[in-house]
Request: fold
Amino acid sequence: MYEFFLEKLNSLKIDSIYRTIKKPMLHEGHFLIEKETGKKILNLSSNDYLGIGFDKSILNEFLKKIKDENIEYYFFSSSGSRLLSGNSLSYEELEATLKEFYKKDVIVLNSGYHANIGLISSLFDYETIIFFDKLCHASIIDGIKLSGAKFYRYNHLDYNHLEKLLKNHRNNYKNSVIITESVFSMDGDIADIETLLYLKEKYNCLLYIDEAHSVGCMGQNGLGVSFKENLFDRIDIFLGTFGKAYASIGSFIVADKIIIDYIINKTRTFIYTTALPPIVLSWNNFILKKSFHKFHNRRESLNYIAKYTREKLSSLGLKVLGESHIIPLVIGTNEDTIILSEYLYKNGFYALPIRYPTVPKMSARIRFSLNSLVEKNNIDTLYDQIKEYYERNMAK
Ligand SMILES: Cc1ncc(COP(=O)(O)O)c(C=O)c1O
Reply:
């Protein structure tokens, strides 16, 4: 059996898709510091979009607040699943804040991954047909596989293709759902929520939107791309995570009370796992409120720097995708992408390669995921480095 594992691992190495855990580095805000050499590197590969994950003043403010308020908020374990002994004041308060902001029922789960695999596999079964965007995240695909439902992938953001599939297949099944991300994690482009709502209503489906990469960053008060008047109420299942812009861990579902009750009763990744620790839930609540009320400037800076970066990189004649703070620079082969990423690292930029099979073959890329603290002069230096890299390679 070990030979089988070894063979599989070797074939990953041959295809340049062998994964290893990176050496830990120290954090200084949005910079990484090499422990041995002290070398300072700008982190352009983090999901800490609002730049709060390593902000000591925000952390100290939180610690002071919970110290002043209640010892309940300090514990590092919930010591049980939510349905047994793991519920806490912190859960109730976080869900109350989410309910106040989204004005619908909510439930908090342990992560976005837990939410997608758990919800999709419990809400949908062989009587359901699922239509989903071809570039949906692995957790959505895993949930679909576990559900046993029939499914069709539509081409990325191609709603004519989706409608064709709906026309041909929707009526053969009792239930139906369309699943999409709002901001796509690997391409940085954005779903057209209005068209999806039109189609879901025309063909009598549910609409499930994963906003993992947009909550905190986009939409009114950072509540997500689809948090708009006349849109949000018509979405059936909305997923946000705390693991990215909100600099923590956990996820939340906003939906009708029937769906929330269904999750509590049927979703195995909710029922059969230890609940989140009170200290984490309290932090989530603290950051969520701050983001809603105070982080408009951070969202504006993020927007500004994303637009600037996309324009600069495009001006080099390179293939740059998307329209958000996630900026993929498509290189092609896994090998070439790794070489560029290593070059950038040497020159002070932590920008990781995203390779096949995470993205389609020959579309390996450097995925720049920006944060609100990145400055114009950082991007000017990045631009110069990439320009020099290509000029040097052309001259060879
Ligand atoms: C679209 C999408 N959904 C869900 C997840 C998983 O979220 P979490 O990191 O909270 O498990 C990710 C993570 O990368 C994601 O990109």
